[in-house]
Amino acid sequence: MRIFPAPSERQVSLCALHSFERVSSFLGMARQRLGGELTAFEAMWNGYYRLTIERVSGVARPLPTHHPFYVLLEASGNNAERIRADVEELLERAKDENVVLDATIAPSKASAAAMWGIRDSTLELGRTFPYASRIGFDVSLPIDRMNAYVNAIRTRIKVIDVQAFAIVFGHVGDGNLHLEVHHEHTPERREDFEKLVYNITGEFGGSISAEHGIGVLKRPYLKISRTQEEIEAMRAIKRALDPNNILNPGRIFTL
Fold first, then answer.
1. Contact at 8 Å (CB) between 77 and 9?
2. Could you read off the pLDDT of 84-128 as tens digits, one per residue?
3. Whether CATH 3.30.70.2190 fits 9-124
4. Fewer Cβ atoms within 10 Å of its own Cβ: the N or the C terminal residue of the chain?
5. From the CB of residue 197, how many other CB atoms can be counted at a distance below 10 Å?
6. How far is CA 5 from CA 8, 9, 10, 68, in A?
7. Which residues neighbour 220 within 8 Å (Cβ) at sequence distance 6 or greater?
């Protein structure tokens, strides 16, 4: 095992963008300019950013709330002067090429924490809505399909409940997307919304779980993103390593 020291410098920036295509372009520019020092690239659709600013107490407002997309970018390393220069050059180029509409760099650790506080207020935002009528999803899919996927979700949940809406954010650089579907006026339709979202995830070639595992709740939907042959292979490994089925029995699949 080899342990590296934690980076001594972090540069955090919040950016506003006009479209998801520009979010994707900006990710490519950031990877090219910052390389391995790009340590976070968090995308927030307007609904998430705006509602967090409006509904969560104590959250900062670094940029106006009318832009379609926001990106929280972080670069980390040990050369403070060079990292800041790299981030400034990246943002300047992105603005010149009309990739980024507006941007701000955190001038202090406190302001950096305030920017991260927006992205990290997912639980606080969720608690401002009725618990029984909100469903959280953790999916992964190709970056170039993300926006079409989100648009499909937003359109098709209206078939179940015309007042339903989705809040979306995610670790775009990793292909991970989080969304919450809110259906305050049809709390009894929870299972219908779950099936719909997972089926759309399958249509777009995504995985029903990006970070939080399958467990018991997602077990009925595993077949959407894994073939029967893949599931049988997983069962075979489970039997080989846990022949008595004593390790988390019933999770992921049944034997």
1. yes
2. 999 999 999 999 999 999 999 999 999 999 999 999 999 999 999
3. yes
4. N
5. 22
6. 8, 12, 14, 38
7. none
Q: CB atoms < 10 A from the CB of 102, how many?
A: 15
Is residue 69 within 8 Å of 45, Cβ to Cβ?
Answer: yes
- 216 pLDDT more than 90: no
pTM of the model: 0.90
In the CATH scheme, what is the code of domain 129-212?
3.30.70.2740
Q: Can 9-124 and 129-212 be said to share one CATH topology?
A: yes
- Give per-residue pLDDT as tens, 178-202: 999 999 999 999 999 999 999 999 9
Strands (E), 8-50: 9-17, 38-45
Phi, psi of 32, rounded to the nearest 5 degrees: -70, -40
